[in-house]
Amino acid sequence: MKIQTFILCCMAAFIVNCQSNQKETIAETPPIEVKDTIPVHVPKFDYDTTKWLDLADLDPTIVMDLRYATANNFVEEKMYECGRCFMRPKAARKLVETHKALQEQGFALKMYDCYRPRPVQQKLWDKVPNPNYVARPWKGSEHNKGVAVDLTIVDKDGKELDMGTPYDFFGKEAHQTYTKFDNPEVVKNRQLLRRTLRKYGFKHIRTEWWHYSYKGKVVSRAISDMLWNCEN
């Protein structure tokens, strides 16, 4: 009996010791950190997206050649501190749709000018005070309202289609109705631009093959003095 009692006591001590070691092991194990959410990258915009959109943010495949951010324009002077292509949101989205439609045909849009702040319109008027070429700043243009663009079409290699004249050419050859070109492709190219833009709500003007204005409803058609940020 004494031997059996001794064995039982040893077994009981062993079990108690194991349980104690298990508790210590569990206590020493660091807790697993559980994250309830996955971080999501939210882009930061340096402008009011309820009133404006930058086409480069919407679709970076649209080609930018913003002439008034350089001296390569008809006044031969830099008008913008930096080049950014802003439009009213609805007009900007419709222009992206136009671009995608052209991409399906192997082409792309190339932008020369977009929203133009009224202070810049004044600078242009001071250089060329001729309403045949520059809108009066106190009256404003569709560019000053964020609904007009100057643009052309490029092919898959980025080469501009032949439109008959350079951008900002002030003469009858730039008129939409002019057709006496040596290259018959000019008329076809202009028709492609006009037809595609018209499908998405943009209307041309008579004297400039590159100028189109969005005629749909937008958040505002007020002349704007908004100047964009050039620090980014």
Q: What is the top-level CATH class of the domain at 53-214?
A: Alpha Beta
What gross morphology would you assign? globular
Question: Which radius of gyration do the C-alpha atoms yield?
Answer: 33 Å
Q: Any idea what the CATH architecture of the domain at 53-214 is? A: 2-Layer Sandwich
Total helical elements: 5
- Give the H and E element order: HEHEEHEHEHEE
Oligomer: single chain
Percent of sequence in beta strands: 5-15%
Which topology of the domain at 53-214 does CATH recognise?
Answer: Muramoyl-pentapeptide Carboxypeptidase, domain 2
Helical proportion? 25-40%
Largest sheet: 5 strands, mixed
Q: What is the count of β-strands? A: 7
Strand order, largest beta sheet: 2-4-5-7-6
What integer is the average pLDDT?
A: 87
Low-confidence stretches: 5-10, 12-16, 20-27
In short:
Helix content is 31%, strand content 11%. With 232 residues, it is α+β, with helices and mostly antiparallel strands.
Describe this structure in words.
- With 232 residues, this protein is α+β, with helices and mostly antiparallel strands.
- The protein has a domain at 53-214: Muramoyl-pentapeptide Carboxypeptidase, domain 2 (2-Layer Sandwich).
- It contains five helices and seven strands.
- Strands 2-4-5-7-6 form a five-stranded mixed beta sheet, covered by helices on one side. It has a two-stranded antiparallel sheet with strand order 1-3.
- The protein is globular, with a radius of gyration of 33 Å.
- 25% of the residues are buried.
- The model is unreliable at 5-10, 12-16 and 20-27 (pLDDT under 50).
